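Let's practice the habit of predicting before peeking. Look at the sequence and jot down your guess about where helices and strands might fall. Then scroll down.
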Amino acid sequence: MRVCSYKGLSIVVMLRDEHCPPHVHVNAGAWNARLQFSFWHNDIEVWDVAPLSCRPPLAVLEGLCQSLEQPAHLRRARRIWWSRLQTVCLDNKLWDNHSNQVLGMKVVTHTTYRVGSARYEPEGDKTFLTLIGALEGVEINL
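Done guessing? Here is the structure:
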């Protein structure tokens, strides 16, 4: 489903055979790119571009990221992803309550919990985490 566009390039969430992490696709003919988004922060990053030999200028990739980063566009991408896939791709990740972030490395401290389940609320643009062993869950306002 189309999320938005940038300079004539459509940014879309594919709905067939999708997988984590949350991402969108851009097909420019000579090259394809995937941009990652998240349900716990609002940053967008380029995941990959293929083929590398036809990689577009950095300004184009940055423009695509900035377009998707616009609140209405990012919210639409999240809504489409959640409605079709019913995952925010955070289950079993490590969450640090002190820094309020997902940890890439398995550094366990007294403020680190494993995410038991996570869900997205499109109306409020919020993500809710249930943390294993924590007294309370986490509500993330996006």
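How did you do? The mean pLDDT is 95.
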